[in-house]
């Protein structure tokens, strides 16, 4: 069948079973939008800013197993998308971004709305393509989806000049794709896995440290099974939350800069550390030299060889898909070797846990942000899709909303992008129409994509926005208080809108909550009475609350500030 | 430590910038980089001379392997290998200098490939040290232009970098 390039683009998306495309039209993609208009299988979500299109597609991908798709025009459309693309790249989220480009003859002529999109995005995509011939569109899009979701996932951008979208050719979608230069390893090396199991069984102070790779590989079930088989303590990183049930006794909470005392101490003093789909990030282990001082054997499972021995030296590297490798480890363990007695280690771990580092002093007069998150967890039965933005509220959400299932926690871990919260919630709500979706945010982050309240109205997305409003760039204020002599340089948020009224002006429900006693009632009202509405809950929280525990940047994991008293 | 990394990469536009972008983004050092198509025109062979600790070199090879268009990567300096570089050097050659430069050229087994009344262009192939030595042997005030290709390398004997 002879089709135009634009029609081919849409047919490819249909072939990939794409349900939603998040985008914003413009000159260079007019023909693609025209083709989109003339079919119904692929639905388009019109955002109010391209950054949100990419974030929403990203949120869709995070909350499902599928590839998120965004469509933007050339020039500013593409540059607005860059933050979204970089955000997805840092967290290895499978995405395909289609961008329009000026006609091929105009490329390099400084044409209207021309930028070198492939050049600008090169460092923040898994791969990108500039399609120069209509006959290459189908194979390129096929490759883009294949690259996005295989190996270590990531965003792939396809830049298509306008003239290519009106040129015609015979359409046939390739069934298979093979690339001689790209063959990601799936199965882990048998010998290495055997060595790892052996090491785990000889451990006296074992610890499991799992990251976002577990969620991306859909290996939560395997991780849970392995951890229970071994009976060892486990911590999951910010990106790995939900990869192991937080309500389980073996779970020690999150490690790192704002991790629990027990998780950090156990990581640091373990003699065998099993790292699963995690990358020893600076926010997790702090100073790598300090971390390396304590002798321990490290087993590291990762699909990406370059993540192994990057920041810390690894003793047993296993390159492979986390799910496959864990399956094999379980198989070997079930074959019968006895587990070591680690009761002395558990006693030590429980001793650390008894410090109850997550306790905070609640108040009758002023709303504590932690309290709001705890109540949200209660009211939603711990079963909601929770997105967050970036800052203090993100850490409180990670600490106090106890995730028992994977893909329920959507946040920008690697890049730390403020403004992702609402678009992530939009993507998750579209992916799971009947589910409870809430966005935990702050008055600063939410304003970075607040225009999406309009999109939420248009597509009737009943997300619940929990704004922990402390009138400060809270995390900046916290660092200024602790490390910059309390000089609060530009961290106060003045001239804030009345968020409840703002939400109402978009046609949503807005509620302002000032007192702790009203927190639960407001949440219940939002999730029952206004179940089908977007509700903007504007919680006026304690302005001076800090996130604890805390490891200062560049310090070791054991040098923790547990509360204000440690300052 | 100095290392010579050889790689096969799809001969596509933008492939070179992915490699050079990787080096600059991650702060790796490039001493020289040469690239040209192989007998299979769809594939290019690249030789990168770089330096760094063992950890950095390990990361460089891993990161290069991660690039979608890179087919194969080998650190050829890990074992016996041959390196060659081509240099074209234009010198002012007048009066008694003409004979002296000719003699030096012969000693280094270089060749004069362009002659004018006032200049020579000398072609010399060898490893980096030989080229450096030749430059050192010339009167620096006579050198008009120095053009070096950067290092090409290949493993000795059975060590073959092929698809």
Strand-helix topology:
The complex is a heterodimer of chains A (567) and B (163).
Chain A: E1 2-4, H1 5-15, E2 20-23, H2 30-37, E3 43-46, H3 50-63, E4 68-72, H4 76-90, E5 95-101, H5 117-121, E6 127-130, H6 137-149, E7 155-161, H7 162-166, E8 168-170, H8 190-202, E9 206-210, H9 212-216, H10 220-230, E10 234-236, H11 261-269, E11 272-276, H12 282-285, H13 288-293, E12 297-302, E13 316-319, H14 322-334, H15 343-353, H16 369-379, E14 385-388, H17 392-400, E15 409-410, H18 421-431, E16 437-442, H19 452-458, E17 464-469, H20 474-483, H21 499-505, E18 509-513, H22 519-527, E19 535-540, E20 550-551, E21 560-561
Helix pairs in contact in A: 1-2, 1-6, 3-4, 3-18, 8-14, 10-14, 11-15, 16-17, 16-22
Chain B: E1 2-10, H1 15-25, E2 32-37, E3 43-51, H2 54-66, E4 70-75, E5 81-92, H3 96-107, E6 111-115, E7 119-126, H4 128-137, E8 143-155
Q: Compute the separation of the termini of chain A in Å.
A: 71 Å
What separation lies between the terminal Cα atoms of chain B? 28 Å
Oligomer description: heterodimer
CATH class of the largest domain in chain B equals Alpha Beta
Shape by Cα distribution of chain A: globular
Taken together, the total number of domains of chain B comes to: 2
Q: Any idea of the CATH topology of the largest domain in chain A?
A: Rossmann fold
Spell out the helices and strands of chain B N to C: EHEEHEEHEEHE
The computed structural class of chain A is alpha/beta
Which value, in Å, is the CA radius of gyration of chain B?
Answer: 18 Å
What Rg of chain A do the Cα atoms give?
A: 24 Å
Strand order of the largest sheet of chain A: 3-2-4-5-7-6
């Amino acid at each position: 069948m002879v089709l135009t390039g634009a029609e081919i683009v849409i047919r490819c998306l249909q072939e990939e079973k794409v349900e939603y495309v998040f985008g914003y039209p413009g000159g260079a993609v007019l023909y693609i939008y025209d083709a989109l208009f003339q079919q119904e299988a692929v639905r388009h979500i019109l955002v109010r800013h391209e950054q949100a299109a990419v974030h929403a597609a990203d949120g869709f991908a995070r909350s499902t197993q599928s590839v998120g798709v965004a469509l933007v025009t050339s020039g500013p459309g593409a540059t607005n998308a860059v933050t979204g693309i970089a955000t997805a790249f840092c967290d290895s989220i499978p995405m395909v971004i289609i961008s329009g480009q000026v006609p091929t003859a105009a490329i390099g002529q400084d044409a209207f709305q021309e930028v070198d999109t492939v050049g600008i995005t090169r460092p923040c995509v898994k791969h990108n393509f500039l399609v120069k011939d209509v006959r290459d569109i189908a194979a390129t899009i096929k490759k883009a989806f294949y690259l996005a979701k295989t190996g270590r996932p990531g965003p792939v951008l396809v830049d298509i000049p306008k003239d290519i979208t009106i040129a015609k050719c015979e359409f046939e979608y390739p069934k298979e794709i093979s690339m001689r230069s790209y063959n990601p390893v799936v199965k882990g090396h048998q010998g290495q896995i055997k060595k790892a199991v052996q090491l785990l069984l000889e451990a006296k102070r074992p610890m499991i440290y799992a990251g976002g790779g577990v969620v991306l590989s859909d290996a939560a079930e395997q991780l849970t099974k392995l951890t229970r088989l071994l009976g060892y303590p486990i911590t999951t990183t910010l990106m790995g939350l939900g990869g192991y049930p937080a309500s389980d006794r073996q779970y020690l909470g999150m490690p790192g800069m704002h991790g629990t005392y027990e998780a950090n101490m156990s990581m640091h003093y373990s003699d065998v550390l099993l790292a699963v789909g995690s990358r020893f990030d600076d926010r997790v282990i702090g100073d790598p030299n300090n971390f390396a001082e304590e002798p321990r054997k490290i087993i590291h499972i990762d699909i990406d060889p370059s993540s192994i021995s990057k920041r810390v030296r690894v003793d047993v590297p296993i390159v492979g898909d986390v799910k496959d490798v864990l399956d094999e480890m379980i198989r070997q363990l079930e074959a019968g070797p006895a587990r070591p007695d680690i009761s002395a280690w558990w006693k030590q771990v429980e001793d650390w846990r008894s410090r109850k580092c997550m306790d905070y002093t609640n108040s009758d007069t002023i709303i504590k942000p932690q309290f709001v998150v705890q109540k949200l967890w209660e009211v939603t039965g711990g079963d909601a899709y929770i997105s967050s933005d970036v800052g203090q509220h993100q850490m409180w959400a990670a600490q106090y909303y106890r995730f028992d299932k994977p893909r329920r926690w959507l946040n920008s871990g690697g890049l730390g992008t403020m403004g992702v919260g609402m678009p992530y919630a939009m993507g998750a709500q579209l992916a799971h129409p009947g589910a409870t979706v809430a966005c935990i945010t702050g008055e600063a982050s939410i304003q970075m994509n607040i225009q999406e309240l309009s999109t939420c109205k248009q597509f009737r997305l009943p997300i619940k926005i929990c704004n922990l409003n402390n009138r400060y760039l809270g995390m900046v204020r916290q660092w200024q208080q602790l490390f910059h002599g309390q000089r609060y340089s530009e961290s106060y948020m003045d001239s804030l809108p009345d968020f409840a009224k703002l939400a109402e002006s978009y046609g949503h429900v807005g509620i302002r909550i000032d007192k702790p006693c009203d927190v639960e009632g407001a949440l219940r009202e939002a999730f029952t009475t206004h179940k089908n509405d977007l509700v903007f809950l504007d919680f006026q929280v304690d302005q001076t609350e800090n996130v604890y525990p805390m490891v200062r940047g560049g310090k070791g994991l054991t040098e923790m500030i547990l509360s204000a008293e440690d300052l | 430590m100095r290392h010579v990394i050889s790689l096969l990469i799809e001969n596509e536009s933008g492939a070179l910038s992915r490699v050079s972008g990787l080096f600059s983004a991650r702060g790796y050092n490039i001493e020289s980089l040469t690239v040209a198509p192989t007998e299979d025109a769809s594939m290019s062979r690249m030789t990168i001379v770089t330096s760094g600790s063992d950890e950095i070199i390990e990361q460089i090879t891993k990161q290069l392997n991660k690039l979608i268009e890179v087919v194969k990567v080998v650190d050829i300096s890990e074992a016996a290998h041959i390196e060659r570089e081509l240099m074209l050097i234009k010198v002012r050659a007048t009066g008694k200098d003409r004979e002296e430069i000719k003699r030096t050229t012969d000693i280094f087994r270089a060749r004069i490939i362009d002659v004018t009344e006032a200049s020579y262009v000398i072609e010399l192939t060898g490893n980096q040290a030989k080229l450096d030595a030749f430059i050192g042997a010339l009167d620096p005030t006579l050198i008009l232009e120095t053009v070096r290709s950067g290092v090409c390398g290949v493993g000795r004997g059975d060590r073959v970098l092929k698809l």
